[in-house]
Design a protein that fits this description.
The protein is mainly beta. It contains 1 helix and 24 strands. Strands 1, 17, 18, 19, 20 and 24 form a 6-stranded mixed beta sheet that branches. Strands 3-4-5-6-10 form a 5-stranded mixed beta sheet, with no helix packed on it.
């Protein structure tokens, strides 16, 4: 009964979300804050998260095809050079592979969480979160703490049926030490919010589905505000911001909503809060670019 009730709740959330009427707003032409330097922009910049220990440092990473590295950059896009190997910037993470790193987060305990959760074919059975103690930006090497494997409760076949290509993810974020997933669906324009409850090692953890929301596109990134009250979700052409309805809760899709369509950004793939009042977007355009958006620029739509 409990599982059935949760699915009914998800369906209701999707129905309410699809009824939301958006105002007619001209997309905002965003101007780059900075160009990303070196290797982070040499392939596909897929995620960005602010450091909890090192002010002014943001961790970014590339998609599949790169080494298992995360790269520390500043708001100016400049790399913090490795003290051990100048010609190999970034922090090499040992003990893992990069099948399809699509997202990155940092939890309250100071652990970097790398989301190897890209699933374009909807056929992967090895979706994983890799936990690493946040390294010093110039240390050059980081050790793996643990890997946690996950799956979606609704997926019954691998690959999924073509009309059920809903098990890709490019956005993870944390509230405290709890990890959440925002999916990139191909069968519709919804995103589904999932939570990882009590993760266990040595088994595949089934995610908990929470709610749907119609982002009018495909979700490519997500992050929670420093206080956990707000959630930002990125698509290729818009920013969405949600405020939890319940104090301390994770019902972001049920609360207040802000929205800003934008243009002139190619490959918007990563997003994070830079403090409570600014949102950063990392895009694949050219060698990689950063964009800064003041929260006040978003329009409240609910």
């Amino acid at each position: 009964m409990r599982i059935r009730f949760c699915l009914i709740c998800v369906g209701l959330a999707a129905t309410v979300a699809s009824a939301l009427e958006l105002p007619k707003i001209e997309p905002v032409a965003l101007m780059p804050l900075a160009n990303l330097e070196g290797p982070p922009g040499s392939r596909e910049v897929s995620g960005i998260v602010p450091s909890r220990q090192w002010p002014g440092v943001f961790w970014v990473h590339n998609d599949s095809g790169d080494e298992t590295r995360i790269y520390p950059v500043g708001r100016d896009g400049k790399l913090f050079k490795s003290a051990r190997s100048v010609d190999k910037p970034g922090v090499l993470i040992g003990g893992v592979i990069n099948s399809d790193w699509e997202a990155i987060a940092l939890d309250e305990s100071g652990r970097v969480i790398i989301g190897d959760v890209g699933n374009n074919s909807n056929g992967r059975r090895d979706l994983a979160l890799h936990y690493v103690v946040e390294p010093e930006p110039t240390v050059g090497f980081g050790g793996l703490l643990k890997s946690v494997f996950v799956r979606y409760p609704e997926q019954k076949t691998w690959p999924a049926a073509k009309d059920d290509f809903n098990y890709d993810c490019e956005g993870i974020f944390t509230k405290g030490d709890t990890v959440y997933f925002v999916t990139k669906r191909r069968s519709d324009s919804l995103t589904r919010l999932y939570r990882l409850d009590a993760p266990k090692l040595g088994e595949v953890n089934v995610l908990t589905a929470l709610a749907d929301f119609d982002v009018r596109g495909r979700a490519t990134g997500s992050d929670a505000s420093p206080d956990g009250k707000r959630l930002v979700v990125l698509t290729y052409t818009a920013l969405w911001m949600f405020e939890a309805k319940t104090p301390g809760g994770d019902d972001w899709f049920a609360g207040k909503i802000w929205w800003m369509p934008f243009k002139d950004v190619k490959g918007a793939e990563g997003v994070c809060f830079d403090g409570p009042d600014t949102i950063l977007i990392a895009a694949e355009e050219g060698a990689g670019k950063l964009y800064a958006v003041p929260v006040e620029k978003l329009t409240q739509v609910r």
